[in-house]
Structures are given as C-alpha cells and as structure tokens.
Amino acid sequence: MYIIFMKMKNYGDKNLISFKEDELIAQKGTYAPLVDAMRRYKDSPCTGFHIPGHNRGQGVYADFASLMGIDALNIDTTDEFDNLGTLFPSTGAIDEAQRLASDVFGSKRTFFLTGGSTIANLALAFALTKPNDKIAIGRNCHRSVLSGMIISGANPKWIMPKKLDDWAIYGSLDAKSLRKCLEDDPDISLVWVTNPTYEGVVSDIEAISHVCHEFDVALIVDEAHGCLWNFSDVLPKSALRCGADAVVHSLHKTGGSMTQSSMLHISKNSRFDVHKIEHALKLLHTTSPSLLLLTSLDAARAFLSSKEGSTAIENAIDNALYFRSEASKIDGVRVLNSQSAVAFDVTKIFLKVDGLSGKRLESILELDFQIEIESASDEGILILSNIGNTKAEFDVLLDALRKISISNYPDLAYLEGIKFMPLTAPSVVMTPREAYFSKKERIKKEDAIGRICAEVIALCPPGISVLLPGELITESHMPYLSDFSELDVLVK
Ligand SMILES: Cc1ncc(COP(=O)(O)O)c(C=O)c1O
Prior knowledge:
The structure is a single chain. By secondary structure, this protein is an alpha/beta fold. The chain folds into four domains: 1-29, no CATH class; 86-305, Type I PLP-dependent aspartate aminotransferase-like (Major domain) (Aspartate Aminotransferase, domain 2, 3-Layer(aba) Sandwich); 309-416, Aspartate Aminotransferase, domain 1 (Alpha-Beta Complex), CATH 3.90.1150; 432-490, Ornithine Decarboxylase, Chain A, domain 4, CATH 3.90.100. Helix content is 38%, strand content 14%. It is globular. It binds pyridoxal-5'-phosphate (PLP). The site of pyridoxal-5'-phosphate has 15 residues, from α7.
C-alpha cells in the first residue's frame, strides 16, 4: 500500500504514472491516506504529553471508555501531532486526502470541515459578502446561510421557491423566478440556492447556473443533502458539474462520514478567490479539528469511490424504489413521487397517512414499532434510503405502515387542522444584521404582531426560517410559533 502511496503523490504528473489509466483511477479513488496515517498513529509506540488530555483513553470515565471502545479513544486526536498533517494550512496526509476528494468530486479545491456544512455556509458568507451587498437567496435556505448574512451584513433578496401545498413543503426554485429577480435588481452580486430540498425536491441547477452566467453573477449551491449524486448516474447531477462556483456537501448526512464532518468544494471554473474562502474558514473553524472526523471524510470518499460503495448506492436507490412502489399500494398511504410532476432524489421519501399528522405517525412508529425516521412535519414524514440500510429494514417499515393503515390510531392534531410551515413571502423591514444588533426586548408572543422580529426562528429539522431578524411579525405567523411563549422583537 505504501508503494502506491508514493506513486499516488505524483498522480498529477502523467510522465510519472506507470499504471494503466483505469487501474490508476481505481487506486486513486479507493486509496485513503488519512486512514492509513491514522492506523500508523494508532500503532505507534509514542508517549504523548499533549492534548487531548485523556492521552489515548487513559484519563477517561470508565463507563464512557467502555461505551466508546478504547480504539476510538486511542485515535481521538487533533491535527498538530504525529505527522498526520494540518488542516489550515493543509499539509501531510490531511492535504493528500483533501486532494483525492477534490479529484473525485471534480473541484478546483476541496476543504474538509469538522463543523458541518454550517461552517461552510458561514465562511462563504463571510468571505464573499460585505455589508449591504445584495444576495439572491432561496427562502428555503438553511439557517446557517442566514447566520452568515448576520455575520457579514449582506442584504438577502428572497426568491420564493414553488410550493407543494398538498404536502406543505417547499418545491423547486425556478430559473424564471431567478431571472426576474436579477432583472429587477441589477445590483445583486451573488445567488445562493439549496438543492435538493430537505424532502428531496430537485431544482434545475443547469438552468439556474445558465441564468447566473448570463447575468455574470456567481452561484453557490448548498447541496448538503446531495453528496451521493457525484457517485451515481441515476441520481441528479451535482451542481459541481452544472456550473456552480461553490458547492457544500454534508458528507455526514448521507455520505457515510461521521456526524459534523462536511466538505466545501470550489469548482474548477469558479469565479471565487479560493484564498479568501480559506482565510474565512481559518477565522471561523476550530483550531483543534478532530482527526476522527477528518479521517471519516477520507474513508467516506474512498468507500463511495469503490465497487462496494457503488453497490451500496445502487442498493439505496433500489430499496427506495421498492419501498415507494410497495408503500403506494397501502390503503391511505400517499408518497410524494414523480406523479406529482416534481423532480426529486428518489432516496428521500416523503409520505403521509390519511387521518394522521406526520408527528403522530412518527410517534406511533417510534413507540409501537421501534422505528426511527428522519423527521416529521405536521403533514408527513421523511424517510431516507441510505447506503447503510437494507431491503429487510424497508420490509419492517412497510409491515408497520400496513398495520397502522388498518388500525384506528386517533390523532387530535390531525382533526384540529394541520399547521403547515408558512410558505409566505416575508415582509422585510431591515437587514438581518441591522436588526440583530438593534436594541431588543422580549415580549409575549400575542403582543408581537406588528412588531419587528429580532431573532432567527427556524425550527430544526429542516432549519428553514419562519421569521428572521428584521422581518415583520404578522397574524399569519402565529400558528407556527406554538413552541414559543415569548419572542425577541426590536424596541419601538
Ligand atoms: C440545506 C442544509 N444546509 C446546511 C445544513 C447544515 O449542515 P450541518 O448540519 O452539516 O452543519 C443543513 C442541515 O440540516 C441543511 O439542511
């Protein structure tokens, strides 16, 4: 393996490559330098006098050690030691792993991150926008994009995606709406869209990118939920291949890496200054990145590039198609599918059961069938067909749905009327940053109608905003604020 490593280091130089092209691609794809470096680290006899202070699991609460396993504690380290490399600047095995990821995703530069896609969105906003810059953003963006606007002071111009009213979710974002937005406001300097939606609805990023190029405006695509697309021709095309300038991937969501690990890709023809983005990441990212998380990114990339990874993705797609078809045959079960004239990522399955709110269905599945789903809204539930799921698991879920459909589970919330997520255009009074740093007071929710919101209200999942700092609070927001008794508003 080490010999391959030495040759691999030169894979950019054609003269030094002695492998056949396809062999080389296979080896580049599945070789995991950080995994190898960590194995050497784990087996090294070094005596350490550095952080983390538990020193390879020796100073740890015994129950936690047995829960975690000593092997995991042994490799819990950060990027300053033992020749593993550093993240900022990227050196050693970490750099090697990032380059391989960049190669596989087809980017100019790929950054490994241990603060989730949240840190990618914050850094992009911080690096690329400044106070009062006008940014066109799909309203269904994750709250981290908005937090980025608070940090930078940029002025979001909201583009409303289509609504799937029957499902109470946002649909795709239309290139035509974007064109109108750019025509109406020639000062817009950046477009930021989320694709796919949390529920898997897909927008036409090629058309969106085309409009951005026509208006010479850069495009960021938050593809947090779409990192598998790069590895399958059946799934939608990644924005990295559709002309986006930067793409965000939560590898930990569906790509098989560990929770909190993500990637930020700067595309080959990006108009962005990579150094500026790296600089922002340096300012915002932890200075003690977990090597466990970074290594899991290397491992996920290697796995997804391997034959086993391809098979796992194919299985996830096949299982999803099987489940969709079987679930649709169950009385009272309705699955969001292509008959709804919506393009989507088939591995994300949104369904509802007549007579039950999504929340009630979620609790029935959990309490009576020990099944955990991805999330529930008032309307329906979201199920993910993952690379780690088996067909047998989908049979268990189908069985549960069949039993539920012939039982008479009561649901008062359903009878009382479902509270959909507000899919209404916001009434913006000032920029999020201006409002965030203005004088605030906390008042009773009922007294907040007509006042200007001073906090981010975006329930997770999926973290899409109901109200943002600087927006007018109206009667129509009230049903969606049932978890709040008080709200932060601007002082009059
Ligand atoms: C579209 C989108 N972008 C970004 C994020 C933030 O990702 P992370 O949880 O990896 O920080 C999420 C999280 O759910 C998301 O849905």
